[in-house]
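Long-time lurker. I teach an intro course on protein structure, and each term I like to show students one example going from raw sequence to a predicted 3D structure in token notation. This year I'd like something fresh instead of my usual example. Would anyone be willing to generate the tokens for the chain below so I can use it in lecture? Attribution to the forum is fine with me.
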Amino acid sequence: KTGTTNKDTERLKEYKKLKKVSVSMPNLLLSIKSLSTLLRASIPLSEAVKTLSEQSTDLNLNKIYKYIAEEIDTGSTLASAMRLFTKVFPETVASVVEAGEKLGYLPGTLDEKIHPYLLPLLDSFQHHIGPKMLQEFLENGKIEVAPLAFMRGRTFNNCFVILDEAENTTK
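-- Reply from a regular --
Happy to contribute to a lecture. Here you go:
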């Protein structure tokens, strides 16, 4: 015997099932926001993820968070546990989490953290439409900035899409 227990075998079967599922983007985003809130309230990571595993109306998402909590309890980082479920957590999410884990706590919202990377694009918009109109368009959603991974399933009508660094978007 290789030392594999029935529990290990069951866990592997569960993982194989879970890595095939997908969840709705609204449920995922809500869960990530909830995780952020729990962590800001000084709830330990493992406990916060376990709490998430009981909150969603999406049972698959609950099972995935339960699995992630078990991974964290065995020493995995949150980013590496998220990377086990590539159909659920886009690489951009895991990368932001990994950066936070490596750098420690970074204050601010996701928008504030990615703002420096958007400056060239925003500068160009501001040059063409002016700062007041740019601010208005950002606030009312006429201009939206989102990572490519979050665009899956979206429908675009009567719009322009500016895609930066698109070389890895096709297989």
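Some talking points for your students: The radius of gyration is 19 Å. The mean pLDDT is 84.
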